[in-house]
């Protein structure tokens, strides 16, 4: 949708309005069906805001600083996930249910105002320069009828036939999903996000069954996973300096031994809580290193696809919003299927089998990443050419 609008502002504000509507539904809900409707609207609004938000971010900061921008975005998301439940709990306990949503109303209103103040960069078609103008000296004196006919003919750099928008969209998704770099970035993101979300459905029951630990104490273990994400800008800086390949490979390589050692924690383990915290911190560091640069790798693959295509092949605004939409779909898929997958495997094979399988999946994506990921470093001359 965002690639077919002349401006990102209209769909982005639409997403924020839907977010406001879903928050009102949550605040006033008295039935399960109202809560379900609110959740559905919230999911739709989140898809719109995340997709167009990341698209605006990419277009605004440019390719040279994309890694740091992704890192700061991941840090902000993690900070919100950490602070939100705490603030919500305090407001619910001391103020009441409706008051929990008052900060959300204020933040959405501020976001709409700030979005209206954003000045968008002028768009370019698929990062290609416009065809050079024809020399005025070479134009002979011709009749008006012949001049109109010649003006209607395409230049050598233009396609003879422009396919419909639906065909362009199909070819756009085909180009994205047949790019090895983009596809491996999606697969790696899905696997890592599924592993991270899998802890939601398995960590608490495992610690309760193995060590008779209260759920409130186990919940503190999730901080060990979340806090390293606050340092995601460091991995973004690495991606900008060295390309995304290095932090992605390093992150996955750290995750493999950490997940393997998690499988060894059992009732017979000495100091199990301390060891669990340390290993979860390593898993969090691995995710912080890899997740942001994987997004940078996917965007680099999109630029590579567009540089190898003709102007207008994928519509007036290129592939960027559609590629980010696919990435958000993959992240959402990991959030949905990760807990289901982890819970099922733990029931069938136990905690040890689950973590060994997670480590094996990381070995698989490490091989794919090593073979397929590019260095992702930016051609300085190309960037200067685009800025002119």
Work out the number of β strands. Answer: 0
Work out the helix count. Answer: 14
| Biggest sheet descriptor | none
What is the helix fraction of residues, given as a range? over 70%
Portion in beta strands: under 5%
State the order of secondary-structure elements, H for helix, E for strand.
Answer: HHHHHHHHHHHHHH
Overall SS class:
mainly alpha
What is the averaged pLDDT score?
77
Rg over CA atoms, rounded to whole Å, is: 25 Å
So what's the overall shape? globular
CA-to-CA gap between the ends? 28 Å
Low-confidence runs of at least 5 consecutive residues: 124-140, 142-153, 378-388
Characteristics:
388 residues, mainly alpha, 14 helices, 74% helix, globular, disordered C terminus
What is the structure about, briefly put?
With 388 residues, this protein is mostly helical. The chain is built from 14 helices and no strands.
Description of the structure:
With 388 residues, the chain is an all-alpha fold. 74% of the residues lie in helices and 0% in strands. It is built from 14 helices and no strands. Helix 3 packs antiparallel against helix 10 (232-242) and helix 7 (180-211) runs antiparallel to helix 12 (272-307). The longest helix is centred in the C-terminal third of the chain and has 53 residues, at 320-372. The radius of gyration is 25 Å and the shape is globular. The two termini are 28 Å apart. Mean pLDDT is 77; it is low at 124-140, 142-153 and 378-388.
Question: What are the SSEs and their pairings?
Answer:
Layout: H1 9-28, H2 32-61, H3 66-94, H4 102-117, H5 144-152, H6 165-177, H7 180-211, H8 215-219, H9 221-226, H10 232-242, H11 245-262, H12 272-307, H13 320-372, H14 380-387
Helix pairs in contact: 1-2, 1-4, 2-13, 3-10, 3-12, 7-12, 7-13, 10-12, 11-12, 11-13, 12-13
């Amino acid at each position: 949708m965002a690639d077919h609008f002349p401006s990102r502002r209209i769909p982005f504000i639409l997403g924020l309005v839907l977010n406001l509507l879903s928050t009102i539904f949550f605040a006033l809900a008295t039935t399960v069906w109202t809560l379900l409707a609110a959740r559905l609207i919230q999911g739709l609004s989140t898809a719109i805001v995340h997709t167009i938000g990341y698209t605006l971010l990419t277009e605004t900061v440019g390719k040279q600083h994309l890694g740091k921008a992704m890192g700061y975005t991941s840090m902000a998301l993690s900070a919100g996930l950490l602070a939100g439940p705490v603030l919500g709990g305090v407001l619910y306990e001391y103020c009441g249910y409706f008051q929990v949503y008052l900060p959300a109303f204020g933040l959405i209103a501020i976001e709409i105002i700030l979005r209206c103040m954003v000045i968008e960069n002028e768009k370019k078609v698929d990062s290609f320069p416009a065809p050079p103008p024809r020399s005025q000296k070479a134009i002979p004196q011709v009749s008006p009828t012949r001049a109109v006919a010649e003006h209607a003919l395409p230049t050598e750099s233009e396609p003879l036939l422009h396919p419909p928008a639906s065909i362009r969209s199909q070819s756009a998704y085909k180009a994205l999903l047949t790019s090895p770099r983009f596809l491996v970035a999606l697969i790696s993101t899905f696997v890592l996000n599924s592993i991270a979300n899998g802890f939601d459905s398995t960590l608490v029951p495992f610690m309760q069954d193995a060590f008779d630990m209260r759920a409130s104490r186990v919940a503190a273990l999730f901080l060990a996973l979340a806090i390293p994400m606050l340092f995601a800008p460091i991995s973004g800086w690495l991606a900008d300096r060295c390309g995304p390949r290095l932090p992605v490979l390093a992150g996955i390589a750290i995750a493999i031994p950490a997940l393997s050692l998690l499988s060894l924690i059992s009732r017979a383990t000495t100091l199990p809580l301390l060891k669990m915290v340390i290993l979860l911190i390593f898993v969090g560091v691995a995710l912080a290193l890899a997740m942001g640069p994987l997004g940078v790798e996917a965007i680099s693959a999109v630029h590579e696809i567009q540089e190898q295509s003709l102007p207008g092949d994928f519509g007036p605004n290129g592939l960027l919003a559609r590629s980010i939409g696919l990435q958000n779909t993959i992240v959402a898929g990991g959030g949905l299927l990760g807990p289901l997958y982890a819970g099922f495997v733990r029931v069938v094979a136990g905690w040890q089998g689950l973590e060994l399988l997670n480590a094996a999946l990381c070995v698989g994506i490490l091989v794919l990443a090593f073979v397929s990921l590019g260095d992702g470093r930016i051609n300085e001359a190309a960037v200067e050419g685009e800025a002119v």
